[in-house]
Design goal:
Number of domains: 1
Number of helices: 3
Number of strands: 0
Oligomer: single chain
Structural class: mainly alpha
Helix content: 55-70%
Distance between the termini: 16 Å
């Protein structure tokens, strides 16, 4: 299984927007924004590190085909 850097960034950003809103309800918006900028960076690094861990994953034939292509190119899955 592969994931582009763009996808990891998008996932990290959408999660941190959600977390910022939730944190902002409790701490105020300014504190929530500062905390979540740092946490977005940590989340990105964490996600990329987990992509290197093979434990708990499986590879199917579609993943093998996608691995052979440019990972930044749009993938059309059926």
């Amino acid at each position: 299984m592969t994931e582009t850097h763009k996808r990891t960034i998008a996932r990290a950003i959408t999660w941190r927007i959600t977390a910022t809103i939730i944190t902002g309800l409790y701490t105020g918006l300014a504190g929530a924004i500062i905390i979540n900028i740092w946490m977005t960076l940590a989340h990105y690094i964490h996600e990329r590190a987990w992509l290197k861990v093979k434990w708990g994953t499986s590879v199917n034939s579609l993943d093998q085909i996608n691995d052979a292509t440019d990972v930044d190119a749009p993938q059309h899955r059926v």
